Amino acid sequence: MSGEKEQEVRHLALRKRRNMIAPSKVKLVTLFDPRSTISEQYRTIRTNIQFSSIDNEIKSLMVTSSGPSEGKSTTVANLAVVFAQQGKKVLLVDADLRRPTVHYTFNVPNTFGMTNVLTKQVAFPEAIRKTEVEDLYVLTSGPIPPNPAELLGAAAMDHLLKEAQDHFDMVLFDTPPVLAVTDAQILANKCDGTLLVIYSGKTEIELVTKAKELLESAKGKLLGTVLNHKEIKGNDYYYQYYGTR
């Protein structure tokens, strides 16, 4: 291979690497800018979650939203990071079997994952992937199935959750929006708590109310809401947690 060709290959590889890393830097502010205002807000949310149920420790948490593009996936990814930074062994599960993003955020393969575990094609321990964040592991979605709700509601999901809680201090689930499909309602009934993410100035209150009612009717424990994209000064934004009463 000529020197010019080798240089071109190196440039293409470097460009590809930059393109892969850039989205993670944007999403994972708690990892790449831990001293920022937003990172501090995530740590505050973490503390509020831990104190939301003193008698019964929260070991499994579902994060969802009423509709799409409200920031639930970014929120749960950063919460996973701050829990891991606290020294907890954390598992982030991509239970959004319709539009999975965890493998993009943490730059890991998604050739197999949660759907393979639920269909007994792959054993749970073999499907877990280590991330570059110490103590943080992910279970990606795996191949998108034709029947996500049925998979999540099956007994295999209960077994997966139990095994996850046996091996990890904290298990977080990223799910589809509540009003889009029934997936989030199914998982809300299985997890110790749920956070509802709201896009400030965009999400309509009627949709939030409807999502809250659906989660409660599914016997999910709504710990609170996270208001994101609330502008403070300049181009800064923060995440605010509101506990339920």
UniProtKB/TrEMBL annotation:
Residues 71-188 form the AAA domain. GO terms for cellular component: plasma membrane. SUPFAM superfamilies: P-loop containing nucleoside triphosphate hydrolases. The keyword Transferase applies. It catalyses: L-tyrosyl-[protein] + ATP = O-phospho-L-tyrosyl-[protein] + ADP + H(+). CDD domains: BY-kinase. GO terms for molecular function: ATP binding; identical protein binding; non-membrane spanning protein tyrosine kinase activity. InterPro entries: AAA_dom (IPR025669), Bact_polysacc_biosynth/exp (IPR050445), P-loop_NTPase (IPR027417), Wzc-like_C (IPR005702). It holds the Pfam family AAA_31. It is an enzyme of class 2 (transferase). The keyword Nucleotide-binding applies. Keywords: ATP-binding, Kinase, Nucleotide-binding, Transferase, Tyrosine-protein kinase. It comes from the Bacteria. Its EC number is 2.7.10.2. Belongs to the CpsD/CapB family. This is non-specific protein-tyrosine kinase.
